Amino acid sequence: xxxxxxxxxxxxxxxxxxxxxxxxxxxxxxxxxxxxxxxxxxxxxxxxxxxxxxxxxxxxxxxxxxxxxxxxxxxxxxxxxxxxxxxxxxxxxxxxxxxxxxxxxxxxxxxxxxxxxxxxxxxxxxxxxxxxxxxxxxxxxxxxxxxxxxxxxxxxxxxxxxxxxxxxxxxxxxxxxxxxxxxxxxxxxxxxxxxxxxxxxxxxxxxxxxxxxxxxxxxxxxxxxxxxxxxxxxxxxxxxxxxxxxxxxxxxxxxxxxxxxxxxxxxxxxxxxxxxxxxxxxxxxxxxxxxxxxxxxxxxxxxxxxxxxxxxxxxxxxxxxxxxxxxxxxxxxxxxxxxxxxxxxxxxxxxxxxxxxxxxxxxxxxxxxxxxxxxxxxxxxxxxxxxxxxxxxxxxxxxxxxxxxxxxxxxxxxxxxxxxxxxxxxxxxxxxxxxxxxxxxxxxxxxxxxxxxxxxxxxxxxxxxxxxxxxxxxxxxxxxxxxxxxxxxxxxxxxxxxxxxxxxxxxxxxxxxxxxxxxxxxxxxxxxxxxxxxxxxxxxxxxxxxxxxxxxxxxxxxxxxxxxxxxxxxxxxxxxxxxxxxxxxxxxxxxxxxxxxxxxxxxxxxxxxxxxxxxxxxxxxxxxxxxxxxxxxxxxxxxxxxxxxxxxxxxxxxxxxxxxxxxxxxxxxxxxxxxxxxxxxxxxxxxxxxxxxxxxxxxxxxxxxxxxxxxxxxxxxxxxxxxxxxxxxxxxxxxxxxxxxxxxxxxxxxxxxxxxxxxxxxxxxxxxxxxxxxxxxxxxxxxxxxxxxxxxxxxxxxxxxxxxxxxxxxxxxxxxxxxxxxxxxxxxxxxxxxxxxxxxxxxxxxxxxxxxxxxxxxxxxxxxxxxxxxxxxxx
Length: 875
What we know:
It is a single chain. It contains 28 helices and 24 strands. The longest helix is centred in the first third of the chain and has 36 residues, at 199-234. The protein is of the alpha/beta class.
């Protein structure tokens, strides 16, 4: 029996593991590790033989270029490797080494391309539910018992008893079939060993590889469980238990692949391509040049149609823009009290009421929509809901009555839009209340809490995908605070936001906010989770969001937060289209692929290679060859890559078309009642700002300063470059980068035309280019004069002590110490400029201290538990 080389199997395994590093599937992405594994795999997959380049290579490169440009990393690595391999074939020197690298790059690119499709399907399934179906948990419990573990299964949990505790291990897909093992199997199906095979040989190889992995999977699960229990037994019983990381560590998962690599090398057959015994029969089934071109076009069209069917979301006609926020049954995140300069702290928790409040986003949405509130005295019935187009339900703290929940469901069925904003661990029983409404629609909010798997558990960064849902079309990357996940069940809808690199824990009901202490526990699930779900129900639509904190006043205007809220409301302000073309597209795509098979006549030529021979054996074939040139055996592999490149082109073109269609159909709505917009500069200012729930940087960070600006009746955005001049005012905080001369010219023109500029700096900043900004306006900081003392604001009697402040020269003084002015302003053209030299007064450390002191004055009756929770929230 012929066997594929061990180095090829190792290369396939390295490519499978590279996705864990490059995609950040569990831990944050490690581009260097991903690049190293791919590079080694390219070398291992190479062959010394080099086929000569042909015109098909040039055509394939042209077709692959759009996909390589459009695809984001790491998905773009596959077409880039194929492009590199084809380009190396054209290099006329060092043919031995270029040939080896060319064949390795092409093979690795093809394997990565197929693996990417398999990973997308795996992630889509596990994001919906990580739990294994019956009877797989019971089977895994049986494996544990064979190892001598006292184990039993209940639902999707395997209970294992030890002297320390009973460990309730989650029976998940990641435990039984992790992404790396699945991708190793998929890669083995398209590895060079299978190229050129007939169907029988390919099926035999596939069956052998499947049997090898089926035999290995229970052994693998038992090995991971055994390692976990060993780590538990040798751990210090007085310390918190952390023994779960080998279940999702990329390095551990790649190490476990050693066994299936050796098993595949030993037991999976790899027969050489048999010689063609009947040339005339082969000729009759050989695709001609014209048929090959037609097939390439059909493949591109089929892939494009399939891509559109999956990622296109028809927006539908826009509705009236009447948005109603439900205050009834909700005592959390109210919108009724303005976020202003007089409301800072209320008992029992320091500043909680003014921070955890939706007044700022209510006013923000008021720029675009006709806003109203459904208050405690209002009824939730058909007549009341008929007065709005979009209903917003946020963090209910009481359950709706059956009649009220039914009225909301009827509102959606009749064409209304519903936005539901939930939070972690069924906080304040909010998920229970909202699930009374969503369960008839087929989905629910889970009672879990999602953490990040990186060094910082509270770090959950989401970047919009390559082909985002229309809700995400106009939003940048954003940070979550703390969220739950969505169980979509059998609802008719789509995942708007699926995030990876997360793990979940259940609630701890003894804590007031049900927030568990972050620790890796056997009950955890990890990988991808749905955090925003858009469902169709009847004639209407509903969107479920899982993190109420990011719309609170203190972080509502961090990047992406206000944008995703606006996107959800705008999506729900559109009616469903009368005809949904996507089911028709899903039906057309397979028909096009059938046409490809009919055109090529031989299925092996489509799925493996185009192995044909030139027809020169009969006069009839000679006559046919004069009319239509056949592809020779030497061009078979080139033509196969050409068809693959045609599919990649169809995907890229369809993806760009889908993005354009989504953005065109649902643009950012017009601001009919504009609110002042304050831009926080990120061109020359790099001070740490808040991310998610927490400020960053302490005495160097200015996240709380940014969060307090909306108290003035405006909203903030972070911009850089020319976009910094798109607001009514520009705030530059402790700049460190030297501004570009062109950017300075734009700044002067911006102020002259009516813009406002605020430059905040402090002696603690050290080197600062602030004077380069201020000199055109007649202002400057005098670096040699750094003073401490009581600052008095012009027109006010109170004073605040600052440890350090720069003297400001020029303009009209606004604030001063006894020695001189430390803040001044000047009018320039139609605009104004202000320079403030005591920025350290507003850094996160100073402002949190002031808020804590103000809070303690109002919270003397707070219990120790309440004070502890308040301090944790403020950290």
